[in-house]
Amino acid sequence: MSCYHTVQQGEHLSSIAKDYGFSDYRTIWNRPENAQLKAKRQNPNVLYPRDVVFIPDKGPRIESRSTDARHKFKVRGTKLRLRLVLEDQYEKPIANAPCLLVIEGEFRQVTTDGSGKIDEEIPQDAHEAMLVIKDAQTPFDFVQIPIKIGHLDPVEEVEGQRGRLINLGYLASDTAEEATDQLRSAIEEFQCDQGLTVDGICGPQTQAKLKQVHGC
Amino acid sequence: MDELETGPLHGTADGGVAGSSVPSGPLEIKAASATAGEFDRIRLPLIPVACWRVDDVRFEFDSSFVVPEARDEMRLLAKLIDAHTAVDSMDPQAKRVPPLSIFGHADPSGQDDYNKFLSGRRAAAIYGLVTRRDEVWEDLYSNSGQFTHPVQGDQWGIRSIQIMLSDLVGPIAIDGQMGPQTSGALKEFQHANGLAADGVPGPATRKQLFLRYMDSVCVDAAGRPFRLDKVEGFLARNEDPKGKGDFQGCGEFNPLLVFSQQDNARFDQAEDKSERNAANAPNRRVTILLFRPASRVIPANWPCPSALDGVAKCKARFWSDGESRRSLHLAAERKFEETRDTFACRFFHRLAVSSPCSQILRIFRIRLFDPLGKALPGAPFLVQTGNREVRGRADAQGDVVVRDVPVPSTCLVKWSRPDPGESSDAPPDDNFADLADAEAIEAFERIFEDNPEEFEYEREVFVDPAETEQSGGKMSSEEARRRLHNLGYTQDALLDAQVRAYQRDTGKGQTGELSDIESDLTRRYSSLDPPPEFTA
How far is CA B111 from CA B115, B118, B260, in A? Predict the structure, then answer.
């Protein structure tokens, strides 16, 4: 039976697809019923809570093969990855740095490449990760960076703006009492660094720049 | 007095504070997973780990010259750097210090440019002191404009020479006039340091004077001189010849305290500006921020202009409402630690917002008495405020001075009568004059029984009994109860009984009316005069 799914915080299309038994999120994403959502969000990994996704029927798939032979069927799916680019505050990559990446309790030793990038395949339903940089040449030696996978909201939403500004190092702390002022300070600092008009308002131009600099 | 290191505050001295920031790393990253070529860029911020501040009193009036008493704060700085130095367990020699950047601040009177330059000069003076770069001090002395911008009024002159000689050779008159006493002391200094003893403070003599004086002032807790490497010790690693990123003046843009409109109008009208000047003292300060080891910045990308530059680059970093933040547009007085809205520069705001040095240092005084109302000079005491504990001996007046950043509502005081042989040894209180605006509290103890603890007396005293709003200038009964409590008339009793007991002890008619003793209480509370003896 087809149905509609309301997105919860932390969900992305791959995890939703897995929950409904689809190996490839594109089976859902490319349905005409989801065209409007696709146009609005563009990125299937960045949905917003209360977005509604159409889940199609899971009908049987018919493939014709001869009966007197053994056939291999390969499940076509898309791999889900965690791809981070690590930099310091002046855009210098944290290159060739050994790191410990813990994904859903699984420990991995990884090393950033020359541009500070980590690119790891992760389970479709991974949500929690922790990154620990282990490089005394950086100021971030043994700093633990908690990561919530799939929790980044669209840039049009305040939470998505805050998330990207945190990722880019513009929010120093997250205390509720000062949250509004801090967010404004972060927006203004970002605007100042990017040569945009400094007004503390994250309008379409600032949003576009934020998305571009952050990478998604 | 020795202070325990507990909590984020490492220590306070008369002219500054040192403390660690609330441990903060990067916040939780919210990442999008990737199915195509997209990525999440994670830019890790500069992470301040600690701060240090030296206040206005450690500089000559309106000058960038550092006075010898700054030694107390330098001790705190040495401790703080030590506490944040990373030691490699494999290689104990490979220590990694927390690099720092120095920020001078001026008060909001005067022009922006002038204040930017003056605060830059004070930052440079501290920079020169901790690095032993005598050429920076020579620049400040001779106004050569190499590291700092000359400002009218900030002339080190003969006064600075006299202060240094007094510290190094022995006390001489500090009058700013070159006379026989000064040239005599100079000759003595020159002779001792292998210089031609001509009694004239020329460049070669100044260089030696600066370096010796820096070694005398910039000392660690054990009294040993310490210095910071101009490369390893600083955020921009001396890559910029003008010190951009290593030291700078914030001018008047980041005050800790903004006057109320009413106070400001009063200060404006007053002929004598000394009241405004005194009220502005917390704003005149030099702050050092320490960052995680291995932190560094590229001077060209550092937002703050050097000490030589004007205010334009500062203003580019202002909040969009920065001008109104630092202005007197609100009726009420604002303190950064309470309202978080007095800094015009959002860059400094972000760096300093969680720093314990963004709070104003308060000083309050407690005078200790025995049950008969006799002050107890040299009395051993212990004061607990929050999680800090200070032990020591009362001064020659029986006074205990407590310095702290937050003002507690109450503090626990324990004290004893000094041993008969010891009371006369109590050191005189040199700082008495500095404490003109300090609050004075008188603590009496009427309970006269043997205390099983090491102290004879113990009392929880109210630090600011008048904190509740007064109605029409009349003392509230709550305030009266608190004041009487501090004087030893316990709060358990009814106010009426407290008043009667006070009147009985002071030989007044026992009316039990608060109004009869109100002026007495206020006077005793704020006056530094000894109280009348009790007629016990």
Answer: 6, 11, 20
Local structure of B362: helix, strand or coil = strand
Cβ burial of A9 (10 Å; 0-12, 13-18, 19+) is: middle
> Are A211 and A190 contacting, i.e. CB atoms less than 8 angstroms apart?
no
Can you tell me the distance from the alpha carbon of A85 to that of A94, in angstroms, rounded to the nearest whole number? 8
How many H-runs (helices) and E-runs (strands) does chain A carry?
6, 8
Q: Percent of chain B scored above 70 by pLDDT?
A: 83
Cβ <8 Å between B41 and A148: no
Phi, psi of B279 (to 5 degrees): -65, -30
| B143 torsion bin: left (phi>0), alpha (psi -120 to 50), beta (else) | left
Quote the CA–CA distance of B42 and B47 in Å, as a whole number.
15
Tell me the shortest Cα–Cα distance from B48 to chain A, in angstroms: 10
Residue B277 · residue B270 · CB < 8 Å: no
> Could you read off the pLDDT of B245-266 as tens digits, one per residue?
999 999 999 999 999 988 889 9
ipTM of the complex: 0.89
**Number of CB atoms found within 10 A of residue B33's CB:** 27
Q: Which residue of B has its CA nearest to A197?
A: B320
How far does chain A reach from its first CA to its final CA, in angstroms? 33
Closest by Cβ to B43, choosing from A139, A169, A174:
A169
Whether A214 and chain B come into contact, CB under 8 Å, resolves to: yes
- Asked if B118 and B142 count as a contact pair (C-beta separation under 8 A), the reply is no
Give the residue from B523, B503, B505 showing the smallest Cα distance to B513: B503
A-B contacts (CB, under 8 Å): 185
Query: Which among A79, A139, A173 is the nearest to B24, CB-wise?
Result: A173
Return phi, psi of residue B9, to 5°.
-90, 115
Interface of B with A in 301-330 (CB under 8 A): 301, 316-317, 319-320
Is any Cβ of chain A less than 8 angstroms from the Cβ of B232? no
pLDDT of residue A89: 85
- Give tens-digit pLDDT for A26-55: 999 999 999 999 999 999 999 999 999 999
Structure tokens at B496: 């009426």
Q: Which of A31-45, B432-446, B512-526 has the lowest mean pLDDT?
A: B432-446
Burial A138-164 (b: 16+ CB within 10 A, else e): bbbbebebebbbbbbbbbeeebbbbbb
